[in-house]
Amino acid sequence: MDYSGYKDLHVRRLEPGILEIVMGEEGKLAVATTRAHAEMARIWLDVDRDAEARVAILRGAGKGFSAGGDMAMVDEMTRDFATRARVWREARDLVYNMFNCSKIIISAVHGPAVGAGLAAALMADISIAAKTARLIDGHTKLGVAAGDHAAIIWPLLCGMAKAKYYLLTCDTISGEEAEKLGLVSLSCDEAELQAKALEVARKLAAGPQTALRWTKYSLNNWLRMAGPAFDASLALEVLGFTGPEVKEGLSALREKRSPNFPPEPKDF
Predict the structure, then answer these.
(1) What pLDDT, on the 0 to 100 scale, is given for residue 67?
(2) How high is the pLDDT of residue 266?
(3) Residues 53, 47: contact at Cβ < 8 Å?
(4) Neighbours of 42 (CB within 10 A)
(5) DSSP letters along the chain, please?
(6) Is residue 186 over pLDDT 70?
(7) Which residues contact 108 (CB under 8 A, 6 or more apart)?
(8) What pLDDT shows up at residue 48?
(9) Domain residue ranges of the chain, discontinuous segments joined by +
């Protein structure tokens, strides 16, 4: 499999059977630019077809896992239907392509994990977070519904009560707390993160591949049953980009202030 066409994702073979997929550049937080967002949705199709891959490790370069969406792309979504439609399709494909990928996916999360990166981190089959990692779903703070992955996976991972609390408040969750909640599989010291991810990857790469892949497929039927809830939440998120709340949320982010959301419409 040739991964040379990917520009914002950097793919290398760590050892036989194990791929590493790195988001962003060293020293910087990975931002979901237009190209990066498209690549993140598409790459799992290539991993699935890669005859030499058994396990893929996803991590962020530099200061953290992911910084969320590029503000220019978010702004364009508020103004352009074609952009909203494209991002909707890519966000949908990211989730479905990850759980339909037959290969095992491990995420290794350090620093902040926001936006599409957070979606990929939690949709991974095994998620390993540094204890000091900061997981933040900031959709409602931006002024749109939490739709890009939350409805399909959060209630299964940490229960409805915790899912509602963190998705409605946008409170930060540390990697250590995320493990206690069941939101991630494991947590460890940041200095041990890459070694731990590789240790788990080696164990899985050495295992019986048919048994592992069929177990993943079977367990992911829980996610397939939640597909309609995910589709609705993603549609509502994208619809929110046409409204007034996201414009205020985006302005507040740019100006580094608290948002002052407009009152809800009388006929809401």
Answers:
(1) 85
(2) 63
(3) yes
(4) 16
(5) ---TT-SSEEEEEEETEEEEEEES-TTS---B-HHHHHHHHHHHHHHHH-TTEEEEEEEE-TT-S---B-HHHHHHHHH-HHHHHHHHHHHHHHHHHHHH-SSEEEEEE-SEEEHHHHHHHHHSSEEEEETT-EEE--HHHHTS-S-SSHHHHHHHHH-HHHHHHHHHH---EEHHHHHHHTSSSEEE-GGGHHHHHHHHHHHHHTS-HHHHHHHHHHHTHHHHHTHHHHHHHHHHHHHHTTSHHHHHHHHHHHHTS---PPPPPTT-
(6) yes
(7) 57, 58, 59, 128, 193, 194, 196, 197
(8) 98
(9) 9-255
The β-bridge relationship of strands 9-15 and 17-23 is antiparallel
pLDDT at 268 over 70: no
pLDDT tens, 187-203?
A: 999 999 999 999 999 99
Residue 135 CA to residue 99 CA, distance in Å, equals: 21
Residue 27 has pLDDT above 80, yes or no: no
Cα–Cα distance measured from residue 25 to residue 143, given in angstroms and rounded to the nearest whole number = 29
Residue 127's nearest CA partner among 37, 55, 187 is 187
CATH of domain 9-255: 3.90.226.10
Q: What is the pLDDT of residues 115-169, one digit of tens each?
A: 889 999 999 999 999 999 999 999 999 999 998 899 999 999 999 999 999 999 9
Could you tell me the two tokens for 78? Answer: 């508020």
Task: For the chain, give the number of residues.
Answer: 268
Residue with tokens 């399709």: 89
